[in-house]
Amino acid sequence: MSRYVIVTSRDLYEYASSSSMLELAGALKHRGHEVTLYLIENGVLAARQGAQLAARLSDLSQAGVTVLAEDVSAKARGIEQLAEGVRLSNMDELADLIVDGCDKVIWY
Amino acid sequence: MARQSGAKSVAIVLATGSYEREAPTTVLRLAEKLLQRGVNVNVWAFEEAVTLTNKDQIDHSEPGALQGILGEKHSHVSKYIDMLLRAGLHGAKLDWVSCILCVQERGVEKHQMNSVTIGTLGDLWKFVRAADRVITIPSYR
Questions:
Q1: Chain A: nearest CA to B37, how far in angstroms?
Q2: To the nearest whole angstrom, how far is the Cα of A17 from the nearest Cα of chain B?
Q3: Most exposed of A78, B35, B85, B118 (fewest Cβ within 10 Å)?
Q4: Which chain A residues are closer than 8 Å to B133 by Cβ?
């Protein structure tokens, strides 16, 4: 079992390949790995409550993927209510994850 | 994959330059937190990212909209880089290396900040080999 941090900085609505990252997160979890999906910059746009992709993030959370959204990115974009299963995070937590909480970082 | 914990060094590969996207600010914010945790950080700047350390350009906030949230300390990229490089004098160290081919192509070899090293792909290879974590920031093409 490995621990993955997938950092998504792109707007998931803008890039077709972003769907693959969500699939990757789910597939890694399905294979028994520990997975954190960390949304930052425009990546947080999908985490807004009511957004189309929000349900997909909630599904990943239900499946056991830890889904986090960075606070500065969310605040800059006026996102106050996050999708169910998405927790507000900060740069300190991302640094801790990179240093102590993962074996591999994938930055998309 | 062998379990690793307590990373002591992180290599970050960055291709986003000045006046483009939010990535340089994010990298600097992350690098600051890693340095505070005693983690050495190596940034390999290539392609447009070599313009971040052009000491002669008009200093810029990137993006300006974040200034209201992050405050003045974080508003200008080159000052932020300089601050982190100086912080390494008394703790964990930041190395910022600009790709030699990229600076020559863009005519900014003689304009790099003094504390920045101009390096080769061999340096990148050594960074990657030595780092406990390697983070490659996409350039969104």
A1: 8
A2: 11
A3: A78
A4: 98-99, 102, 104-105
Q: What is the pLDDT along chain A (108 residues), one digit of tens a residue?
A: 999 999 999 999 888 888 899 999 999 999 999 999 999 999 999 999 999 999 999 999 999 999 999 999 999 999 999 999 999 999 999 999 999 999 999 999
At A8, list the tokens.
Answer: 């998504």
Closest residue in A to B21 (Cα) is A41
What's the longest Cα–Cα distance across chain A? 37
Q: Which CATH number fits domain A3-107: 3.40.1260.10, 3.60.140.10, 3.40.190.10, 3.40.50.2300?
A: 3.40.1260.10
Pick from A71, A41, A99, A14: which is nearest to B39 by CA? A99
Distance CA B10, CA B73 (A): 23
